[in-house]
Specification:
flat; DUF397 domain-containing protein; alpha+beta; 19% helix
Length: 63
């Protein structure tokens, strides 16, 4: 497993917590808090696009 630098957990209402992380090679990670040993992995640019899309409301229909 690469050396991932995890951010503090982000928790929404109802204690649905996840963490974002990056490594020195430019990869981005997202994991459920407490399950960081099983992250989803993609490029840092893909994570940026995901966050921008969420902020723009593109995932509101999932809520």
């Amino acid at each position: 497993m690469p050396d991932i630098q995890w951010e503090d957990p982000f928790c929404g209402e109802g204690a649905n917590c996840f963490r974002l992380g990056t490594d020195a090679e430019g990869n981005a990670y997202i994991a459920i808090a407490g399950q960081e040993d099983h992250p989803l992995t993609d490029t840092r640019e893909a994570l940026v696009q995901l966050i921008r899309g969420i902020k723009a409301g593109k995932a509101d229909h999932l809520l």
